[in-house]
């Protein structure tokens, strides 16, 4: 059984994702990948959709990966993983191969939008893999365009805050609700400011795969200093504020039971969160007060909904 931890110094020192990649300073992706590959025990193969992680870690002729890795297009990461998982099962059964765990990393563009169809199909078919959506809330790799993951009011290159629109006018798509609706065994949100929580969730996922249980889905909050227009030194502070303002609840749905992992009885003002990000600063202007109030209501309603669901024995 994969080991759960209580302190950061319990995390193993060996690395499967090494230095030399081209990801930006303050990017939220590297710590998540490092923890995932350490916590998920045994032989493993990574499927990587086009995006920041893919282009920045495989700059020919170099690679940051020390384990088997495959790149595919935006739209078919889950389909590729499905094929690999099925092939591994067949090779184990017919030729006595050792089993490999399959991990998928895809950004919000390749998961919320372009890759949603193949992800839904893989979840419905019950393929036993771990899918991680690293969510930096826009198409950062191709120029900071808005995606289905972009929050209400956020300024991007295709939803600029100006005289015509005050940033993105729509709410963020609820990807976790979509995933949970497939009634998969395990789904959870994770955040770089809470690495022990993240480790233990990946360890649980590893144990489930060992027991033949899957698919498993993680929704990861991934700060992007460039796209969010903030100091790269503030990435973890912003990530922590996302949880402490209840904007990014940390919870899991384990075989139909929803549990909030980090309680936030007294949330911090959402203004503390948006003030240090250039993509949101226009929301503090008097003329955009209605948008700020809508964002606050969205956060409050979602938190109350999760609390009510956590009080039930099972949500499905």
**Biggest pleated sheet:** 8 strands, mixed
CATH fold-level label: Rossmann fold
- Strand pairing plus helix content: what structural class? alpha/beta
Q: Which homologous superfamily in CATH is the superfamily?
A: Thiamin diphosphate (ThDP)-binding fold, Pyr/PP domains
Task: Determine the N-to-C terminus distance.
Answer: 26 Å
Principal-axes shape call = globular
Question: From the 3D coordinates, which CATH architecture would you assign?
Answer: 3-Layer(aba) Sandwich
Approximate helicity band = 25-40%
Output the strand order for the largest sheet.
2-1-3-4-6-5-7-8
E-strand count: 8
C-alpha-based Rg, rounded: 19 Å
Quaternary = single chain
How many discrete domains? 1
Descriptive keywords:
eight-stranded mixed beta sheet; 316 residues; 36% helix; alpha/beta; Rossmann fold; globular
Provide a descriptive summary of the structure in words:
By secondary structure, the chain is α/β, with parallel strands linked by helices. The chain has a single domain, classed as Rossmann fold. Helix content is 36%, strand content 13%. It has eleven helices and eight strands. It has helices at residues 29-39, 52-57, 77-95, 109-113, 116-125, 175-180, 195-210, 225-228, 235-244, 270-274, 289-310, and strands spanning 44-49, 69-72, 101-107, 130-135, 186-190, 216-221, 251-254, 257-260. Strands 2-1-3-4-6-5-7-8 form an eight-stranded mixed beta sheet, sandwiched between helices. Helix 7 (195-210) links the parallel strand 5 (186-190) and strand 6 (216-221). Helix 1 (29-39) crosses helix 7 (195-210). The longest helix is centred in the C-terminal third of the chain and has 22 residues, at 289-310. It is globular. The two termini are 26 Å apart.
């Amino acid at each position: 059984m994969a080991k759960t931890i209580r302190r950061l110094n319990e995390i193993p020192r060996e690395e499967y994702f090494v230095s030399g990649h081209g990801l930006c300073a303050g990017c939220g992706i590297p710590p998540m990948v490092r923890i995932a590959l350490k916590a998920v025990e045994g032989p493993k193969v990574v499927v990587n959709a086009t995006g920041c992680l893919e282009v920045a870690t495989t700059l020919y002729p170099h690679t940051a990966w020390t384990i088997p890795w495959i790149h595919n297009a935006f739209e078919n990461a889950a389909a590729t993983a499905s094929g690999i998982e099925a092939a591994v099962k067949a090779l184990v059964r017919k030729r006595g191969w050792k089993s490999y765990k399959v991990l998928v990393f895809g950004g919000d563009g390749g998961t919320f939008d372009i890759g949603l169809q193949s992800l839904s199909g893989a979840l419905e078919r019950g393929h036993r893999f771990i899918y991680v959506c690293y969510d930096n809330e826009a198409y950062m790799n191709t120029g900071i365009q808005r995606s289905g993951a972009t929050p209400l009011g956020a300024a991007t290159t295709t939803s600029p805050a100006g005289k015509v629109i005050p940033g993105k006018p729509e709410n963020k798509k609820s990807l976790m609700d979509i995933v949970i609706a497939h009634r998969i065994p395990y789904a959870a949100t994770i955040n770089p400011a809470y690495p022990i929580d993240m480790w233990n969730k990946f360890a649980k996922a590893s144990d489930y795969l060992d027991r033949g249980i899957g698919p498993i889905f993680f929704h990861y909050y991934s700060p992007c200093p460039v796209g969010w227009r903030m100091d790269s030194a503030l990435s973890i502070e912003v990530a922590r504020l996302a949880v402490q303002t209840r904007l990014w609840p940390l919870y899991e749905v384990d075989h139909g039971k929803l549990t909030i992992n980090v309680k936030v009885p007294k949330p911090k003002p959402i203004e503390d969160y948006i003030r240090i990000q250039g993509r949101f600063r226009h929301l503090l202007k008097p003329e955009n007060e209605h948008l700020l109030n809508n964002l606050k209501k969205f956060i409050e309603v979602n938190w109350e909904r999760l609390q009510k669901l956590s009080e039930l024995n099972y949500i499905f």
